[in-house]
């Protein structure tokens, strides 16, 4: 595919995402059903499913050869990244959606032959759309995001769920060395915040491809680093851990955790 064709897919994906966000804002005012998935804290609503269906219908109609990997399973069964694959989380941060009515996002990564080409993360209530097209840079509401600047650990804000400290006490050292910890409860937004410099690193121990795909493309465009917690490349085919960081502190974090 040519860069022009990718530009067109990028623009189309942005316009669908904004439309989907508009639909979510409308559906929020109605009563919708809330179901639990694996456990009582793992929620899904009709709005998650409706939103995934919206993308599935749009993509099938316009790009019939593209495949869809979506959290709610309305797309295809995808076990490789051959061809073009849309990796979609219709609502990232469903607990926030239900409880806080803000701080949730639509997250999309479009991959081609395993390479991240388009990344979109839309904070629906703040109306902030983070977008990236491979080779063309990353943007927040169409304003270009600069490449990430040099920082030190002691002037960095880090983000992870407080519960992870119980799972890995080595994180305590990071708490002490950094300027502070934040936690937003939506992985895609936390990756977008690393990409725009609101925080310097985000760590999670249990993420799915759709939580990370959009953010990965954004980070690549601003010089950020995203690997799993062991420092290995993300595959976007399985659940994994994540360390997404400003390159200046990525090494410091790896050293603190793994001693190398
Ligand atoms: P979700 O809201 O789409 O489920 C919350 O800390 C973050 O982790 C959110 O991005 C949330 O996405 C994700 N998350 C929650 N439960 C998860 C699970 N069991 N596996 C992977 N990611 C999960
Ligand atoms: Ca979920
Ligand atoms: Ca998610
Ligand atoms: Ca979700």
Automatic annotation (TrEMBL):
Annotated residues for binding of Mg(2+): 71, 89, 91-92, 211
Required cofactor(s): Mg(2+)
Catalytic reaction annotation: a myo-inositol phosphate + H2O = myo-inositol + phosphate
The protein's Enzyme Commission number: 3.1.3.25
The keyword Metal-binding appears for this protein: yes
Alphabetized InterPro entries for the sequence: Inositol_monoP_metal-BS, Inositol_monophosphatase-like, Inositol_monophosphatase_CS
Keywords: Hydrolase, Magnesium, Metal-binding
Domain of life: Bacteria
One annotated GO molecular function: metal ion binding
One of the protein's GO biological processes: phosphatidylinositol phosphate biosynthetic process
Protein name stated in the entry: inositol-phosphate phosphatase
């Amino acid at each position: 595919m040519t860069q022009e064709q990718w530009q067109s897919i990028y623009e189309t994906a942005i316009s669908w995402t904004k439309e989907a966000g508009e639909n979510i804002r409308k559906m929020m005012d109605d009563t919708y059903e809330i179901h639990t998935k694996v456990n009582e804290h793992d929620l899904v609503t009709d709005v998650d499913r409706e939103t995934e269906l919206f993308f599935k219908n749009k993509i099938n109609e316009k790009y019939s050869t593209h495949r869809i990997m979506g959290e709610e399973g309305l797309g295809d069964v995808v076990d490789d990244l051959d061809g073009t694959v849309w990796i979609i989380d219709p609502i990232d941060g469903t607990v926030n959606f239900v409880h806080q009515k803000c701080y949730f996002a639509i997250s999309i990564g479009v991959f081609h032959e395993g390479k991240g080409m388009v990344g979109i993360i839309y904070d629906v209530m703040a109306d902030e759309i983070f977008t990236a097209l491979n080779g063309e840079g990353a943007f927040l509401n169409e304003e270009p995001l600069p490449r990430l600047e040099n920082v030190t650990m002691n002037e960095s804000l880090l983000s992870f769920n407080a519960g992870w400290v119980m799972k890995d006490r080595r994180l305590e050292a990071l708490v002490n060395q950094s300027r502070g910890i934040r936690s937003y409860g939506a992985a895609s937004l936390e990756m977008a915040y690393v990409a725009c410099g609101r925080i310097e690193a985000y760590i999670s121990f249990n993420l799915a491809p759709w939580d990370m795909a959009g953010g990965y493309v954004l980070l690549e465009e601003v010089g950020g680093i995203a690997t799993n917690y062991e420092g290995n490349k993300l595959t976007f085919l399985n659940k994994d851990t994540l360390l997404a960081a400003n390159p200046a502190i990525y090494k410091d974090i790896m050293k603190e955790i793994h001693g190398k």
